[in-house]
Amino acid sequence: MTDSASSDCRHDGGTHGYAGDLTPAEAWEALEQDGEAVLVDVRTPQEWQHTGVPDLTSLHRDAVLDPLQTFQGPNPDFLEALTRAGLTPGDNRTVLFVCKSGGRSIAAAQLATSAGFGPAYNVLEGVEGHAGPGWAGQGLPLRAWEGER
């Protein structure tokens, strides 16, 4: 990730077990500037169906869809799915985590960081927003989810 994007972090997440927080617009900029950066949507398939998924086709890639939680509890395959998506612990690829409103994505960034992935960032406000506009509310692209992973 570029120095300018990383300097725009809302706080230094390093003290919280991950690299930091980015607004949705900052996350989009990081994805535009770093062709190796990966966006991971950690919401559930039901949420993907309801709201859609981040559309990165203009950046010639797809978001990784990897739910952090299942109805039974934590997803035991979460970290393995990151590896299947081409990430490797220690590869220093920027990983941006997004959820519905910015809570689960913090946990995902912490978990990924502890496993050696990243630098891992949380996307503030998530897809739908919480205290402010999220990915969708900032006009960033979404597409319908068609059942793919």
From TrEMBL:
Residues 33-144 form the Rhodanese domain. InterPro entries: Rhodanese-like_dom, Rhodanese-like_dom_sf, STR4-like. Residues 1-21 are annotated as: Disordered. It comes from the Bacteria. SMART domains: RHOD. This is Rhodanese domain-containing protein.
